[in-house]
Amino acid sequence: MLPEKKLELRKLAYKIRIGITEEIKARGFGHIGGSLSIADVLAVLYGDVMRCDPKKPGMPERDKLVCSKGHAGPAVYAALALKGYFSYDELKTLNQPGTNLPSHCDRRKTPGIDMTTGSLGQGTSLAVGMALGDKIKGRDCRTFLIVGDGEINEGQAWEAAMFTAAKKVNNLVWLIDNNKKQLDGYTKDILDTFNLEDKFRAFGFEAFTIDGNDLEQISTALSKKAGDKPIAIVLDTVKGKGIKEVEETAANHSMTPKPEDCDRWLEQLHKELSALA
Amino acid sequence: MNIVYNGEMDTRLFKNVLGQTISELLSEDENVVYLDADLMGCIGTAKLPKETNRAINCGIAEANMVGIACGMSAVGFKPIVHTFGPFASRRCYDQVFLSGGYAGNSITVIGTDPGVTATFNGGTHMPFEDVALYRALPGATIVDITDVPMLVDFLRQAKDLPGVKYIRVGRKASAQVYEEGSHFELGKGNVLREGRDAAVIACGIMVHEAMKAAQILSQDGIEAAVIDIFTIKPLDEALVKAYARKTGAIVTAENHNKIGGLYSAVKDVLDGEAKTGYVAVEDKFGEVGPQDYLQERFGLTAEHIVNTVKETLKRAGK
Ligand SMILES: Cc1ncc(C[n+]2csc(CCOP(=O)(O)OP(=O)(O)O)c2C)c(N)n1
Asked: Which of A274, B133, B138, B240 is deepest in the core (most CB within 10 A)?
């Protein structure tokens, strides 16, 4: 990656984290942990990899994103606002009455949201369908699917995985946000998924694990072109990544921070962002 | 049964009462097994004593959880399963239906955050159709919980009842209606307030709204009875018919789609004894927002009940 591009993506990742924090500050609570863990992959997707145009959100040939862990809506909204799909100020309407930015992703409400999610597991098959449909139509585009490591408890995810590999839906990229936590705590205590990379490989994917909070590694992984086998990337991430206090909070799935907490976090993020320039 | 309703909210939250009661049932009855789908933290069961191997977090896999619960029923356990309402109904319906009902296994399913009480989790988490689904399951029992004494009593009853039992309950506070320690007879509605002009048949969060509405109506010279029907299936047909004959005007009030819920159930048993009206969600999906906003948005307030009663009385020529 060129140094300029790398700097640009680092800045974008900070801005996404700032956006998430502002959304949650405005509402007073929200799914902060799982939003922060995917800020980096969203920065690479929307800042570099995905071919999409905020002026034409419905363009059939666009690359598509399905954030199947729909409760990470705040992260996707921040990325979309920064990309220009809607005004940045709108982020403050998260979860307010009549909002276009509900807690969970909704394609009928938010420009740029390619698929409605929130009932965990369902986004996986939807993404398969979108990618398969694009393939049959001969469109040269990819679908990126972000799945939670807790979400992957759902049997539907594995039905979709089996289909992806068996039917060679290689224009679909699975991105598993392996932040090691779900709602009730650590995945290993709740329902141990063991080695996700091995599982996907056994299902017929070209599977590998990267540091999912490392922009360069993400970028390299996403530039890989799939052969017959579809690609599954296990993103080794940290729930709450980028805000130390959130990372260190045990129950960081959904939090109700005080405004002054958010202000402190925002100040730190802004400080680190300006230090980059 | 003593009614202690005074319009005030209970200081206890349903979620804490759920956690506490489930914990008690686990220690009192060695055949009780409790399964959850990564939502223990939401009902205060995450901190159950580690010794118990009968509190099982199944992960986010509701259909699998229900199947496992049904299997455990077949070998002598009394499973209680919990997840949010949409996942306790739609997401595992075939498993509840076949592995549970059809196969003759007995499970208690707790679906939290019914209807508008799902608030900030939004449309994907807001079931307006769970009652419709369970009503269509032969032999199922459906209870929409009114207050804490009812929740405690029904949880204790449910574990020993045969068949599929579905408990619909929020996680926040409710207005207390019944005296502490009350015992509830399944399938028998409770008349909370007498009235000759009309009868409001309500369940769940709408009982509180119905009581408020009856007060307002009374000020306008209309005496409306309020019935807490709580068991939507099996429905107290005799009581519904009696009040239909007595008042000639029946209005139902439910936190559910008008299709397939309490209104349908009441209409099913009436045969022209009364004019009917409903306060329910018109055929719509849920959305995100605070509960008061959503109750207003979907027409689930005391004011809507008042207007519907007046309009129904007009049609009844009263
Ligand atoms: C089918 C379904 N069951 C339960 C839930 C409630 N829920 C929302 S988020 C969550 C935990 C998700 O964990 P994970 O996928 O690991 O997400 P992350 O930790 O990245 O936020 C649960 C149980 C849901 N949204 N959908």
From this structure: B240
Q: Cα of B64 to ligand 1 centre, how many Å?
A: 16
pTM above 0.90, yes or no: yes
From first CA to last CA, the distance across chain A in angstroms is 18
Q: Give the CATH fold of the A3-275 domain.
A: Rossmann fold (3.40.50)
Q: Where are the domains of chain A?
A: 3-275
Instruction: Report the complex ipTM.
Output: 0.94
Q: CA A101, A103, A105, A107 torsion: positive or negative?
A: negative
Q: What does the pLDDT read at residue A116?
A: 98
Cα of B34 to ligand 1 centre, how many Å?
A: 20
CB contact under 8 A, A150 and B38: yes
* Pairwise CB contact (< 8 Å): B57 & A183: no
For the segment(s) B190-315, the CATH number from 3.40.50.300, 3.60.21.10, 3.40.50.2000, 3.40.50.920 is 3.40.50.920
Q: Does B296 touch chain A (CB under 8 A)?
A: no
Count CA atoms closer than 13 A to B310's CA, side-chain side: 13
Measured between CB atoms, does B48 come within 8 Å of chain A?
A: no
Q: Give the Cα separation of A125 and A122 in Å (integer).
A: 6
Q: What is the pLDDT of residues B175-217, one digit of tens each?
A: 999 999 999 999 999 999 999 999 999 999 999 999 999 999 9
Mean pLDDT score of chain A: 98
Residue B1 confidence (pLDDT): 85
CATH number for domain B14-169, candidates 3.40.50.970, 3.40.50.1100, 3.40.50.2300, 3.40.50.300: 3.40.50.970
Whether residue B50 is predicted with pLDDT greater than 70 in this model: the reply is no
pLDDT of A253 strictly over 80: yes
Q: Tell me which chain B residue has its CA closest to the CA of residue A117.
A: B124
**Nearest chain B alpha carbon to A30:** B120
